[in-house]
Amino acid sequence: MEKREILIIGAGPAGLAASIEAAQTGAQVLLIDENDTPGGQLFKQIHKFFGSSKHKAGTRGINIGKQMLEQTKEVGVELWLNTTAVGTVGDKQVALVRKKEDGTSETVVVEAEEILVACGGAENAVNFEGWTLPGVMGAGAAQTMVNVRRVLPGKKILMVGSGNVGLIVSYQLMQAGANVVGIVEAAPKIGGYCVHAGKIRRAGVPVYLSHTVLHADPDENGEVKDAVIVQLDDHFQPIAGTEKKIDCDTICIATGLRPQIKISTLLGVKNGFIPELGGWMPIHDENMETNVHGIFVAGDTAGVEEASTAMDEGRLAGVSMAHQLGHLSDAEAADRKKEIVERLEALRLGPFGERRQNAKNRIVAEGKKHE
């Protein structure tokens, strides 16, 4: 059995930020990720970030990720890649399956004084006839293929969902040479920011509002060859006679994320249902600590928002864990937390952010009930 002060599961924006924050206080940090490269969403995000200079405004996500990886090395974070958390063994003991250099795998049990679960979010699916055909995929999968693996998922792409993910990935696919033949949105208006929607409209991509995919049809090889979409009424029911066939070889689904809560649930963490943040998610307090002392959550696992928010939640968890371990004094921890919380509140300004802040307040209030 391996023993560490802090185990962080997930090396995305939240996990990276938390590992840096904790390790720079002198804490012993083990950061793991199931992928062969760390960084998570940051290395998919080739667009420039919004916000303030404190949130790296004007810097591309991939460059933010590179900067953070360098910081982890500087502060001495121990990083295990190709390592998957598969279950729990005992109190704060996590079973990990680690791929070795020779291609074989080994199971390692790590016991930690503090654990942060930052596993991110999972893409929601849309069930229509043909949704399991080759060529139907999540928008995040398509983004990974084109921005990380440099593989174009298709030539003629239909995007389902007009939130920021749907809009951004559509534009990035066009930059990579794909033809986005349309964006289908069940709501009567575009869900993402105007700056992203404007790029799509200027590029001439048709947007089908109040529409959904009725079915996808296969070609002779069993792969997507077209999709039939249909208009929806005010009750989101299909309107007969409004069907349209769209020629495409790929259908990308961008209909939101849900928190990845399997490991936190196995660790005994209680969940609450907050629709604005993706559904079922771990209950936690203002320090990102759950009902189980020493178990923390951050990023999309703690409620689906965005990379900048995930990083600050990770920093908040990192400070809290270091404080509990005695690496920070009460005054030092309080000052650092105050700074991070102020940045988080700034990120949650405006109509979109206000809803998220209110939702966060509800989950924190639930967390206080379990203290």
UniProtKB/TrEMBL annotation:
Keyword hit for Oxidoreductase: yes
Pfam families (UniProt xref): Pyr_redox_2
SUPFAM superfamilies: FAD/NAD(P)-binding domain (SSF51905)
UniProt xrefs under InterPro entries: FAD/NAD-bd_sf, FAD/NAD-binding_dom, Metab_Enz_Cyan_OpOx_G3PDH
Annotated Gene3D superfamilies: FAD/NAD(P)-binding domain
Entry annotated with the keyword Oxidoreductase: yes
Domain FAD/NAD(P)-binding, residue spans: 5-314
Keywords, ordered alphabetically: Oxidoreductase
Protein name from the UniProt record: FAD-dependent oxidoreductase
Species this chain originates from: Laedolimicola ammoniilytica
